[in-house]
Amino acid sequence: MPLKSSTKFHLFLMLVTAAFLGGCTGDKAVSYAQDIQPVLKKHCFECHTQGGDGLKASGLDMSSYAGLMKGTKFGPVIKAGDGLSSTLVILVEGRADSSIKMPHGKSNFLSNDETALIRNWIDQGAKNN
Ligand code: HEC
Fold first, then answer.
1. How confident is the model over 55-74, as pLDDT tens digits?
2. Which of 48, 55, 70, 77 could be bridged to 62 by S-S, CB 3.0 to 4.6 A?
3. Ligand 1 pocket, residue 12 CB under 6 Å
């Protein structure tokens, strides 16, 4: 017996939803060396490496993977596997008080693509890949 047209429609909707979700979860593997470090270099290194104000004030040294994962003098700013609640993502997305949005005191904030990249990388485990 042929499928009722309403059943066909439901199947169609399920396919569309699956395709949409698949496209949104950022399946593409993000690389620390190739994707993340260049973004940090462009927006953060100036203050968060040796001699920079951000490193002096917070203790966060982004010049290496180890330094990035170690975080500030108060502790980690990256929760591997959980981009949404990682301090670093909260700051670059401007979800904290705007006075501490990073990059600090600057207008060259990250693009949506750049913040998404960082978030996906953390969601994927914040690996040194
Ligand atoms: C112009 C200098 C400057 C730049 C550029 C900069 N920061 Fe900062 N950052 C600071 C200073 C100063 C502090 C410490 C004082 C504060 O939190 O306001 C800080 C603190 C932080 C903290 C710790 C906040 C906390 O609550 O303990 C994080 C995380 C951080 N920065 C991330 C970043 C990221 C990610 C970038 C690049 C997207 C960046 N910063 C770029 C100056 C900078």
1. 999 999 999 999 999 999 99
2. 48
3. no
